[in-house]
Structure to design on (169 residues):
């Protein structure tokens, strides 16, 4: 769930959030480095991000990485910091982002179901090898299904929360 939340935080909403860009890879000293490792990222107001690099020589590399990303953001370089104004989302873009959230949510459901299937296979193999009884297998399979349902419901809730966040004007 934490990985899903982290992934959904990278989806842009109408508000400035450091999570939007902190994962970006910046070419620093010839090595791709996460932006969060080479700069401080803060918000200034509800719609502006401020990036203060630890090393001013990396300013141009950070700017280039932001422009190359698929976020559609344009940084303003004043020589010391980068400022990014987060424009409000159009209705069309909001709908597109909701579809992206739903796609990532479906991937998460598939991952959960795959874990369930792998665990069921292991349990059935243990029962076949007489490591557990049929009663234990049935009880454990029921428990596994309840856990699967719980985590799918949690993922759905995380997705719904993100959709509400995206659709707020």
């Amino acid at each position: 769930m934490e990985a899903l939340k982290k992934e959904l935080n990278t989806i842009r909403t109408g508000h400035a959030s450091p999570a939007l860009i902190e994962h970006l890879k910046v070419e620093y000293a010839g090595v791709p480095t996460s932006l969060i490792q080479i700069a401080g990222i803060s918000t200034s107001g509800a719609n502006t991000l401020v990036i203060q690099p630890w090393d001013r020589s990396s300013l141009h590399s950070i700017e280039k990485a932001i422009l190359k990303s698929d976020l559609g953001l344009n940084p303003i370089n004043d020589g010391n910091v980068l400022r990014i104004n987060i424009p409000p989302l159009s209705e069309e873009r909001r709908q597109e982002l909701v579809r992206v959230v739903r796609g990532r949510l479906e991937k998460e459901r598939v991952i959960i179901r795959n874990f369930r299937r792998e665990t069921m296979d292991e349990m059935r193999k243990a029962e076949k090898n007489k490591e557990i009884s049929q009663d234990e297998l049935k009880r454990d399979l029921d428990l596994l299904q309840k856990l699967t349902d719980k985590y799918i419901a949690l993922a759905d809730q995380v997705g719904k929360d993100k959709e509400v966040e995206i659709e707020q004007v």
